[in-house]
């Protein structure tokens, strides 16, 4: 496990990381006084989870759910099924031409998802972003929540950038590279730091009247 670091498996793991962050950075303690306990947010891993991420790109939550329900009903959540189906049929289930191509690329990639569970996080990210339609944000979120990696961050996330601006009283929203550098100080619990920032973002926006 040395190569992949800690794995978050329970609320107790999140609480351990939260306590470490509160001790290392007082502003995290301030944020957590407002947010309360942090969510576990673990998800399954595997092909279907990544296909769902592709489906969700640039559409509303409601639309993504509707399309995913059609794919599930049609049995199109497995690589073999995607490969045995033409793009026209996939588009008939609600996928755009581009997303149908992405789904096929994911199916053709032949990713060994069992092996990813034991691969170092940089290797996980490299493997996933090699697939057309999967960017670094999706790969880092997969490592964070589907593989439970405790020390991965997603600095390209706009909510994390805005939360960091608010919590650390920055003059402007930090860019991806700047936030990635900031997050190095939160190792080995960067995934928990992300949970703090997301929770803080929601609290801050609720105060502003934004849901």
Order of helices and strands: HHHHHHHHHHHHH
Shape estimate:
globular
Helix content: 55-70%
Would you identify the regions where 5 or more consecutive residues have pLDDT less than 50? none
For the biggest sheet, the summary is:
none
What can you tell me about this protein's structure?
The chain has 211 residues and is mainly alpha-helical. It has 2 domains: 11-42 and 151-207, Endonuclease Iii, domain 2; 47-146, Hypothetical protein, domain 2 (Endonuclease III, domain 1). The protein is 62% helix and 0% strand. Helix 1 crosses helix 2, helix 3 (47-56) runs antiparallel to helix 7 (97-109) and helix 9 (121-129) packs across helix 10.
Essential attributes:
13 helices; globular; 2 domains; mainly alpha; Endonuclease Iii, domain 2; Endonuclease III, domain 1; 211 residues; 62% helix
SSE layout and pairing:
Blueprint: H1 11-24, H2 26-35, H3 47-56, H4 61-73, H5 79-83, H6 87-92, H7 97-109, H8 113-116, H9 121-129, H10 136-146, H11 158-167, H12 176-183, H13 190-207
Q: Could you write a compact summary of the structure shown?
A:
The protein has 211 residues and is an all-alpha fold.
């Amino acid at each position: 496990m040395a190569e992949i670091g800690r794995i978050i498996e329970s609320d107790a793991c999140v609480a351990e990381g939260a306590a470490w962050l509160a001790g290392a950075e007082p502003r995290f303690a301030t944020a957590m006084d407002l947010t309360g306990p942090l969510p576990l947010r673990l998800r399954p891993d595997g092909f279907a989870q990544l296909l769902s991420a592709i489906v969700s790109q640039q559409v509303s939550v409601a639309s993504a759910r509707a399309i995913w329900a059609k794919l599930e009903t049609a049995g199109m959540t497995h690589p073999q099924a995607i490969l045995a189906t033409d793009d026209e049929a996939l588009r008939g289930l609600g996928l755009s031409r581009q997303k149908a191509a992405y789904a096929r690329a994911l199916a053709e990639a032949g990713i060994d998802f069992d092996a990813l569970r034991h691969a170092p996080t940089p290797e996980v990210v490299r493997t996933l972003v090699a697939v057309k339609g999967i960017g670094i944000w999706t790969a880092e979120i997969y490592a964070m929540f589907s593989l439970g990696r405790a020390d991965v961050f997603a600095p390209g996330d706009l909510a994390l950038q805005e939360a960091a601006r608010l919590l650390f009283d920055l003059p402007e929203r930090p860019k991806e590279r700047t936030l990635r550098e900031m997050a190095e100080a939160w190792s080995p619990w960067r995934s928990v730091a992300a949970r703090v920032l997301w929770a803080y973002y929601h609290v801050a926006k609720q105060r502003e009247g934004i849901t």
